[in-house]
Every structure is written in C-alpha cells, then in structure tokens.
Design a protein that fits this description.
Helices cover 47% and strands 14% of the residues. By secondary structure, it is an alpha/beta fold. It folds into three domains: 119 residues, Rossmann fold (3-Layer(aba) Sandwich); 121 residues, Rossmann fold; 78 residues, Rossmann fold, CATH 3.40.50.10800. Helix 15 links the parallel strand 11 and strand 12.
Length: 344
C-alpha cells in the first residue's frame, strides 16, 4: 500500500511527497477510515483539495454534484465536506436529515463573500424599480442566504443554459462578473447585469503563460475555467467546469494539456489520467487548501464543525437549486433533491 501511495502522490510533487511524509499520511488515512466507519460518515472532496484528501474521499467532484451524490447515500448519517463553507451549506440544503461537518472554519470563499444577503436584497429592490421583470440567477458559489433570494441557481457548466431558459429579459447575475460576461457573450439577446465580484484565484491568471505554452508545445490543449478573465477565456480550446475538464482530458486524443484553474485540479488530473501530461497555469486557493488530514481526523473525532441553516432559508435556497434543474431539463445524473424542496 505504501509503495502504491508513494507512486501516486509523487506524480503530483516528488519533492514534497517523500517516503517519510507519505508513511505519515498513510497512518492518518487509516485512522480516518476507522473514524468514518464508527461515525457512519461519507467524505466529499472538491476537485481543488489536497491530493492526500482524495485518498480517503468517498466522492470527488464539483460542489453541487457532490452534494447531490451525498443525498443518494441513504445509510450514512454524517457528511464531512472537504471544500469551502458555501459547499457544505449546499450539502445541508439537499441533505437536511444528515449532520454536515466542515473540517476547518477557515475554509471560506472570497467570491461568495462579495455578495451578502442584505446587499443582494438592496440591489434587487433597486433594479426591479427599473426592470420590473428582473430575474435573479445565483452561481452556486454563494451563501445559502443569497441562494434563497434567487429565482434560480446555476453552475459554471450550465450558467448559459439557465439564463437562456429563464423567461426574464433582464437578469441580475450573482456574484462572479467573469462568469456573467461569459454568459452574456453566449446569450446576447438578454441584458445581463453583473454583480461586482470575482474569484481572486482565477482573476490572477493572465494570458501570458498560455501564449508561452502554445509557442513551446504546439498542439497543447488549453482548458480554462469560466471564472477566468475574458482575455484568458479567448485563448482557450474549451471553457469548462472542473468536472468538465476531467471528462475532456479523459476523452480527448490529445496527450498534453494546460489546465487553467486552481492548482488542485492539475494534481487530480495527474493522478487520475497518468498516461497524459498536465502543465499548470494555475494559482493556489488558500481557502481550499485550508483543510488538512489533521482537520478531517479531528472533525470526525470531535464531530466539528457542524453546518446549520434556518429552515426557511434552506427551503428557499433548495427551490432555487430545483429551478435550475427544471430550466435545463437536467436528468441530474439520476439524482434528486429532497421532496420537501422539490415539491414546494
């Protein structure tokens, strides 16, 4: 087991994942697996997490997909969400009967923090005086309270479809201005009013590194997250969600890729698709990297830190998530959110 784990983690960073460190990691993983069994817990890991977190995760993916997947694990009582705070909230929205734990309260989100519920309420009230038919679309990278103010939620992969399907001519898109601009480009028949927010990680990424890599490696495929700036998106072969990038890399005939997003995805790709090579044009998210194996172990041992939501907020946020699926006629990968949300 140790040798296999060493080989896997060293694909990511051979200088960091030396034998001594991996032996320690393996012992931590064993303790966490034991605690998971004792607590009847499932562990969800977002694609941007540390590589060693994936080794103990039951599911890895993007935030909404993970929350919905967890809803199908009927025999688990506890969800440990290795991601950031709004993701754990979303898991609670669609899993109200389960205990949801966030291992480290420092795992916040600078993008979600740009849109507070009082500020969003004020902006909606102000805009509806000018545009009575205003629709409000909220990216899942927001708090539950902000989702609860929305007509529909969206993900980075379905944002265009959600906005296009919404009956409103004028749409307030919260909170990411870069994703809003991406949507406006693809839905020119509507007026998109962008919230003034952005992900500090993706905002830092500039076109320079992409242009350099294209010169050095002809034929390299450039995969960019829609939260990136417009001048970066224009250089991409595809603008995709984190899960979309993984699927693209697995299915593509190309052997060399540049993943333009948070560095954790490049780590995951290097492990998941070892026969291909992934270069980096990425930045580290200090919030995503806040969670460690030590945090996970302590979270399960002490049952901390539990996510709780006001029931009215949970139901209204859940309806916005449900409306997203209704607008896009999504099969939701054969998953469903709870009836108390879907039927409201």
């Amino acid at each position: 087991m140790t040798e296999t784990l060493i080989q896997k983690l060293q694909r990511v960073d051979p200088d960091y994942y030396v034998r001594e460190r991996v032996v320690k990691i393996e012992a931590q993983l064993q303790r966490i697996r034991k605690l998971k069994r004792e607590r009847n817990a499932v562990l969800l890991a977002h694609n941007y997490q540390r590589p060693e977190i994936f080794e103990v995760a039951d599911f890895a993916g993007d935030s909404l997909g993970l929350s919905l997947q967890a809803a199908e694990v009927h025999d688990a009582k506890v969800i440990v969400f290795c991601g950031v705070h709004f993701m754990a909230e979303t898991a609670k929205i669609v899993n109200p009967q389960k205990t949801v734990l966030l291992p480290n309260l420092a795992a916040g989100c600078s993008l979600a923090d740009t849109a507070t519920a009082p500020a969003v309420e004020d902006r909606i009230r102000e805009l509806k005086q000018v545009y009575p038919d205003l629709g409000v679309v909220t990216y899942v990278n927001t708090t539950a309270e902000v989702k609860a103010l929305s007509d529909a939620c969206c993900t980075s992969s379905n944002a265009v479809s959600v906005v296009r399907a919404l009956p409103n001519q004028y749409v307030l898109f919260i909170p990411d201005q870069n994703l809003a601009r991406h949507v406006a480009t693809h839905v020119p028949e509507k007026t998109i009013i962008a919230w003034d927010g952005f992900c500090y990680v993706h905002q830092q990424i500039s076109p320079d590194v992409i242009l350099k890599m294209r010169q050095e490696i002809p034929g390299i495929k450039v995969l960019v997250h829609p939260e990136c700036r417009d001048d970066v998106l224009k250089l991409a072969d595809a603008a995709l969600s984190t899960s979309g990038m993984i699927d693209y890399a697995k299915q593509s005939n190309a052997s060399e890729f540049l993943a333009v997003t948070e560095c954790g995805l490049s780590d995951m790709l290097q492990i998941a698709v070892p026969e291909k090579h992934f270069y980096r044009a990425c930045k580290i998210c200090r919030f995503m990297k806040a969670i460690t194996l030590e945090n996970v172990e302590e979270s399960l041992r002490k049952m901390q830190f539990e996510i709780t939501l006001d029931e009215d907020v949970r139901l209204r946020a859940g309806r916005a998530i449900q409306h997203m699926f209704d607008l896009t006629s999504s099969k939701r990968d054969d998953l469903a959110i709870p009836a108390d949300v879907a039927d409201e």
